[in-house]
């Protein structure tokens, strides 16, 4: 029998700009009652984008919850109803000033499925063409170009903390070695 | 110059069992004001545990935010002040009924650094010894044993959604291939 929890009651807590929070009363499979705290989020995308010199585009930006800059691959939040692939292309161009000739889906990632509905969609992009970076007035980041294998090594050496960046780089590396990218 | 956002005011929103939520007013580097929604979480651990037949231990459990069962590596939430390595050993034994003779740190993962302070610590464990599974009364999960390479292939085939599980399996695989595990 699959495990199952049934919603008894749902109580909204907070309706923010990016996240919503609710607490649900649930019934467990043994009949007991429990509470579940749940974050809603529109989801996101991230892109491993590789240029003709096999360098990957990285962005360095301040991440407020950690009070410091992190190195990540280009990424962004989905607009509600937006196609994830279109969002990936938009964010890549806005953040780095490049469009990609080829685009491949590397799958979904649930970053924190115990309490957060967010899904991040991972992409691999190649055949880059320069256009123009289009940052929002209040968006600040630096774009880095780094040999792809050096970025993979940084992940293995624990020098990149961001989860989606670590996963997308290692997944792209494994798929490339298997001849599937 | 590094990018920086400075906290002007912090407003508590919700103080729950697992998460806390606050909204902060910040000043951006261009002097503009902005709001940041921030989740606090005690952090977690997860463990790639491999037995003498090179099978990895997986758990299948219901994840309420997605309304379905997910396949993950054993994992758990840190108690405040708990050593992550001790937490990994505890969760591995409680969820699967195994202790490990060797334990290696694979690094931290920030699952959603844009709005969540959570850090997940990744571990690799081997030389497993059976003890006894110790699930809480309200904890329901099945333990699976699967050849390590089959689990890695499931990640590449987009059949495992959980982020920490995908990352820890690919990281362990890459480090094993490099002779570092």
Task: Characterise the protein shown here.
2 copies of one chain form a homodimer. Chain A has 181 residues and is an alpha+beta fold. Chain A is built from 3 helices and 10 strands, in the order βββββββαβββαα. In chain A, strands 7-4-9-8 form a 4-stranded mixed sheet, sandwiched between helices. Chain A has a 3-stranded antiparallel sheet with strand order 1-2-3, with no helix packed on it. In chain A, helix 2 packs across helix 3 (163-177). At the A-B interface, strand 2, strand 3, strand 5, strand 6 and strand 8 of A face strand 2, strand 3, strand 5, strand 6 and strand 8 of B.
> Largest interface, per-chain counts?
A-B, 73 and 73 residues
Determine the N-to-C terminus distance of chain A: 38 Å
- Taken as a percent bin, the fraction of beta residues of chain A is 35-45%
The number of helices of chain A is 3
Lateral strand order in the biggest sheet of chain A? 7-4-9-8
Rg result of chain A: 19 Å
Q: What is the molecular shape of chain A? A: globular
Q: Give the oligomeric state of the chains in this entry, treating copies of one chain as homo and distinct chains as hetero.
A: homodimer
Uncertain stretches of 5 or more adjacent residues of chain A: none
Helix percentage range of chain A = 10-25%
How many beta-strand segments of chain A?
Answer: 10
What integer is the average pLDDT of chain A? Answer: 97
Output the helix-strand order of chain A: EEEEEEEHEEEHH
Sheet with the most strands of chain A? Answer: 4 strands, mixed
Structural class of chain A, by secondary structure, is alpha+beta
